[in-house]
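User: Sequence recovery, please. Input:
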């Protein structure tokens, strides 16, 4: 008995359906992965730029906190011990300078044309109290430095950009005995500085300066 021939099943041509390697479709996934990798690398490099901070060791984190501490002083009521508990003490805080009676006189009375009756009652009471009159001079400076810009240009010294922000706070407190009789503050609530250094030769800039004919 003869077998009937089976119909042949069409076999797909794999070579015909294969996408060439140099076609845009084949290269698209690789380009996407490379773009993602480069983006992540650049984002990570930004965080590698150095940063720094210059400040006086105090518990005030902002100009507003320092201002509120001085404004809370009640003349003829706030004591030296209460201020010391808040960190306002020349023996505990490097930003506080102790003023003697001659220092107070030189600051508030020497060379001034203001009549005694025009002075603040606390200042006048302090000036007439002799050696019982002392004071605190406070100077706080807080600056944070951060390098910004291109990581590679910064690393190879072609271009370095530094942004500094912070505040500068000053205050004066007068005492008669153990009681604060006068307090005033000032300063700069907002400081912002920008510094840009460019070196056309990058890491070789120092060599160029050394070889320059003098």
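Assistant: Recovered sequence (214 residues):
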């Amino acid at each position: 008995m003869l077998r009937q021939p089976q119909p042949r099943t069409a076999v797909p041509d794999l070579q015909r359906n294969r996408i060439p390697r140099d076609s845009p479709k084949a290269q698209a996934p690789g380009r996407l992965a490379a773009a993602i990798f480069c983006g992540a690398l650049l984002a990570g490099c930004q965080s590698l730029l150095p940063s720094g901070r210059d400040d006086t060791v105090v518990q005030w984190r902002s100009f507003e906190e320092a201002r509120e501490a001085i404004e809370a002083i009640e003349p003829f009521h706030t004591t030296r011990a209460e201020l010391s508990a808040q960190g306002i003490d020349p023996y505990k805080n490097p930003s506080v300078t102790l003023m003697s009676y001659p220092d107070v006189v030189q600051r508030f009375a020497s060379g001034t044309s203001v009549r005694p009756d025009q002075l603040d009652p606390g200042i006048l009471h302090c000036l007439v109290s002799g050696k019982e009159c002392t004071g605190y001079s406070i100077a706080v400076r807080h600056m944070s430095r951060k390098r910004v810009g291109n990581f590679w240009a910064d690393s190879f010294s072609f271009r370095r950009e530094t942004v500094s922000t912070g505040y500068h706070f000053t205050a004066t407190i007068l005492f008669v005995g153990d009681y604060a009789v006068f307090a005033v503050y000032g300063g700069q609530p907002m400081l912002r500085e920008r510094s840009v250094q460019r070196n056309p030769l990058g890491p070789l800039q120092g060599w160029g300066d050394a070889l320059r004919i003098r």
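The first helix runs from residue 14 to 17.
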